């Protein structure tokens, strides 16, 4: 699907991987809306790319619906949707103080998995009602999982489960949406230099990078954004999960 001139929505676009995606899409001529719970971050990125800032919780039907309506009013209905919003909370299932609080597990699943599904279902509803383009396409969606979905570490049960759910729903939803001309793909990034990791000491960053076969460094968010552009542009890529990790495999801990 072409990117130039299209209306796009990026969740989690106020920082990190989402910000890189929002900037990349705008650089390719898309009219981008940034949805983030962090109002300041969303507004900053939107201002810098001449886009639209939308504030809200991805797991809220009301917030996401309002964002999609706002996008449609400002830029036209979104045909490109990229979900990058997520949280990464660590905690052992059975720790020194007993079992993990169920609310902690539910919170991670709510934001990462339910939030991704919520954005996908509401965006697809609107895409399905659009006139198809010349190739029959009505839209393209890219979701963000993690390599933790495949080799999650100790303490990542909630995070791995949430990202594993995103991986598992990629194919069935792509098959379901085929009749509408809507593609769904997923990227599973490894260890990227996001604001969270930038706050770590240089020694800690180098230690993480040393475990990555090649290139032995942390991923650049721009590389993630480039993979998103590929997923959106390549019309034959559908229902796929792409690991973007420098061939790393997470150790148990």
TrEMBL record:
<keyword id="KW-0560">Oxidoreductase</keyword>
<dbReference type="GO" id="GO:0016491">
    <property type="term" value="F:oxidoreductase activity"/>
</dbReference>
<protein>
    <submittedName>
        <fullName>NAD(P)-dependent dehydrogenase, short-chain alcohol dehydrogenase family</fullName>
    </submittedName>
</protein>
<dbReference type="InterPro" id="IPR002347">
    <property type="entry name" value="SDR_fam"/>
</dbReference>
<dbReference type="InterPro" id="IPR036291">
    <property type="entry name" value="NAD(P)-bd_dom_sf"/>
</dbReference>
<dbReference type="InterPro" id="IPR057326">
    <property type="entry name" value="KR_dom"/>
</dbReference>
<dbReference type="Pfam" id="PF00106">
    <property type="entry name" value="adh_short"/>
</dbReference>
<dbReference type="InterPro" id="IPR020904">
    <property type="entry name" value="Sc_DH/Rdtase_CS"/>
</dbReference>
<feature type="domain" description="Ketoreductase">
    <location>
        <begin position="6"/>
        <end position="190"/>
    </location>
</feature>
<comment type="similarity">
    <text>Belongs to the short-chain dehydrogenases/reductases (SDR) family.</text>
</comment>
């Amino acid at each position: 699907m072409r990117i130039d001139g299209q209306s796009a929505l990026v969740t989690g676009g106020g920082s990190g991987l989402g910000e890189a995606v929002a900037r990349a899409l705008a650089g390719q001529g898309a009219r981008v809306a940034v949805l983030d719970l962090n109002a300041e971050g969303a507004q900053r990125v939107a201002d810098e790319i001449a886009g639209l800032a939308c504030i809200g919780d991805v797991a809220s039907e009301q917030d996401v619906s309002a964002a999609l309506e706002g996008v449609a009013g400002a830029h036209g209905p979104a045909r490109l949707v990229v979900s990058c919003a997520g949280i990464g909370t660590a905690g052992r299932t059975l720790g020194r103080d007993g079992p993990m609080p169920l609310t902690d597990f539910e919170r991670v699943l709510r934001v990462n998995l339910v939030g991704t599904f919520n954005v996908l279902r509401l965006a697809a509803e609107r895409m399905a009602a659009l006139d198809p383009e010349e190739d029959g396409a009505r839209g393209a969606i890219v979701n963000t999982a993690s390599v933790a979905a495949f080799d999650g570490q100790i303490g990542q049960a909630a995070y791995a489960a949430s990202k594993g759910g995103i991986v598992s729903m990629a194919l069935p939803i792509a098959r379901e949406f085929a009749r509408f001309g809507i593609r769904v793909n997923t990227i599973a990034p490894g260890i990227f230099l996001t604001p969270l990791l930038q706050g770590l000491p240089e020694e800690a960053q180098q230690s993480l990078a040393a475990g990555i076969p090649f290139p032995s460094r942390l991923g650049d968010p721009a590389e993630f954004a480039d993979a998103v552009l590929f997923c959106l542009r390549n019309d034959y890529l559908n229902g796929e999960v792409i690991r973007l990790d420098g061939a790393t495999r997470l150790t148990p801990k």
